[in-house]
Fold this protein.
Amino acid sequence: MADQLSPELLVDRYRLMLKMRFHEEAIKKLFTEGKIGGTTHLYIGQEAVAAGIITQLRPDDFISSTHRGHGHMLAKGGDLKPMLAEILGKSAGYCKGKGGSMHIASIELGNLGANGIVSGGLPIAVGSGLSAKMRGTDQITVVSFGDGAANEGNTHESMNLASLWDLPVLFLFENNRYAVSTETSQSMAGSMEKRAAGYDLPFVQVDGNDLEVVHFAGNEAIAHVRSGEGPYVMQADTYRIEGHYYGDAMVYRTKEEVDEWRRKDPIDRVENLLQEREILDEGGIAEIRSEIQKEVDEAVDFAENCTPPPVESIFEDVYTEWQS
Amino acid sequence: MSERTLTYREAVAEAIAEEMARDERVFLMGEDVGAHGGAFAASKGLFEEFGPGRVKDTPISESIIVGAGVGAALTGMRPVVEIMYIDFIGMALDSVVNQAAKVKYMFGGHARVPLTIRTAFGAGRGNAAQHSQSLETWLTLIPGLIVVMPFTPYDAKGLLKSAIRNDNPVVVIENKLLYCASGHVPEDDYLVPIGKAEVRREGTDVTVIATSRMNAFTAAAAEKLAAEGIDVEWIDVRTLKPLDMDTIAASISKTHRAVIVNEGHDTGGFSNEISSKIMDRCFYDLDAPALRVAAEDVPIPYNTELENEVIPAEKDILSAVRKVMEI
């Protein structure tokens, strides 16, 4: 029998995944209503990856996230209210309204930042790993990156240096199949497995839409990294149900393909497990869903009613003040 | 007792050594900075003193040299990273511009990036087009960065120590031809403040504002001009960003004439930045337009004669000053 999460943990992760999903659904709605500017990248369909891995980190561990990073932040302990306030550009947001969806960060929570540059977080994660090693702690850093980032030089420089210096970094390759509109088969030669082998790094590939599989493979990867044995590469195969950004016409893929992946929805799969194992019945599931929905609705309400940042704040936080 | 003199490169190494001894969070990494002592011997002796744990040779991977510096800085360290030639910073520009410079602001202030990026610039060595550039304006363009260019060994040490103690990303641009220059460097623990220009010669007729090695030409030109009866006030900019316009404006209010000397190209070089700020602030103090001395708008050629024609030299300063005095 495959490894199973305890009923408590399964329910806990289920709640988190719902929080991610409803958070993104709320953003879709706000975007449609014209309340969100710029662009926003939704994590819908990939929830099992962040919920399976990042939840296993300690508060003092670090993550380095991507432009599709809302799920990572929630999994690292992010609160819905400052998340949504940030996405609405309010001063109560995690970045005082100056970062927005693509730059959500909290050094306090160990999130070194979502990143608008697809491979921009990898060198930062390697530096964070170097720092932990130099400071003599057993903190680890998990860096998420996608199939787009996989082909930027940063990814190779990062894997090479992390391997060379045995740094405590888990490279979490979330292959969601599309770099904007370009399918992985059109952008990636070889495979991540071979690339990892090229840098002498241990590698595992999992179904990223299966929470338990992600959890247990992640558990091993995290233990390896924490033990000081060096970095690890984990590939989670998943699918970006929404477009690259909200509003993407998605001419590059068929409705049938999207529907096929909708049938593999990671949240549906957890709901099935909860029922099969008689942890929750339909009523119990409906109750949790409505609880989380309420939490998200309250956060939206909070965020919408927050004050926008004062205009004078544009000159704040460019530099940390110095004496000489 | 005679004053202690050090070369510019020795001053750099001493600054790093002192800061590493003072603060265990400080470490150095870059290409060939270890046992080799750096491409310009500016980290000589550090590997022997502090060992491979704190003086780290990296692969030739500029993006991660800076990017890992950002990650380490965000998580409690104070890295000093080296990009061997400023010409190579193109390979690292995302880490400098989109990461180091922006995280504090993007994160709403909840981050500090105490990162020092050392690099070397400048022509005059026959290094040709990809190892000779003055790319400081690529960096001065970016809010969130501090950019300094020391001229004397004294400033090379004092500005670098200030950079390492600063909680922002600071780019310290050293000059390759100045590494051998000697000058007075006290043994005591001094800092040179970031953001302050230095009036190196007081004068009454014309203000010559120079950066880095151009100061050497300015000094020589000022002596010759004095013999002609032109009294030059010479300002060494030292910090390009933030630029000390107070010192420049105060001088121009006295001399009413200005010449700006920078090794960067005529188009887009830092001389233009100083010139436009003078226009903003000192227009009514000027008796003549501020003139610029800059490199030609061509890549730096290999042949020494051609190279010398392209980059500014003493003769160009002499003719610019004479010209501005005639207007």
Remarks:
- The beta strands of chain A are 62-64, 141-146, 169-175, 178-179, 182-183, 203-207, 232-237.
- Residues 7-306 of chain A form a domain with the Rossmann fold fold (CATH 3.40.50.970).
